[in-house]
Amino acid sequence: MLDQVQKLEKLSITSVVVGEIQKDKGVGQKISEGQFSIVFSSPEAALTSGMWRKSLTSGVFHDRVKAVVIDEAHCITEWGGEFRKEYDRLNELRSVFPEKTAFVALTATATQAMRTEIMKKLQMILSDTCTVSLLPDRPNVIYYMQKSSKKKEELNWLLNDLKTNSKS
């Protein structure tokens, strides 16, 4: 989230992170006053009563909020309440924000069954929900291979590891 804030700042978009990593306790008041266009929060900060939840649910920020975006939404089904109980409570945000607030769930790794479960847990009504599913073409990920005349020697560590740890 901190990386995303830095990138947004370079684009002159006001943004901030709330939660344990935020050391400036004055940020809560600034959020309520509507001084940030984008606020990044962990489920714990948004759902646990206290300063961060209060700042997200009051004042100008609350009145102007356009969307609640849940990134890495596959964590809702993969982790759920077993690992981080707040993932099972994300639907509570619907009662905190104005009814017109859009909910967006983003993931690059969810199966169809997982997407259905995510929508159910976030109370996304199928008739009101637009699903966009694209092939996972990741042009920012590249593979690099260097040819060498010493192929076997360079891969001996891998061959030895496979031989040693093979379950054959």
UniProtKB/TrEMBL annotation:
The keyword Ribosomal protein does not apply. It comes from Mytilus coruscus. This is RecQ. Residues 1-128 form the Helicase ATP-binding domain. One of its GO terms (cellular component) is nucleoplasm. It holds the Pfam family DEAD. Belongs to the helicase family. RecQ subfamily. The keyword Calcium does not apply. InterPro entries: DEAD/DEAH_box_helicase_dom, Helicase_ATP-bd, P-loop_NTPase. It comes from the Eukaryota. GO terms for biological process: double-strand break repair via homologous recombination; telomere maintenance. One of its GO terms (molecular function) is 3'-5' DNA helicase activity. Keywords: Hydrolase. It is an enzyme of class 3 (hydrolase). Its EC number is 3.6.4.12.
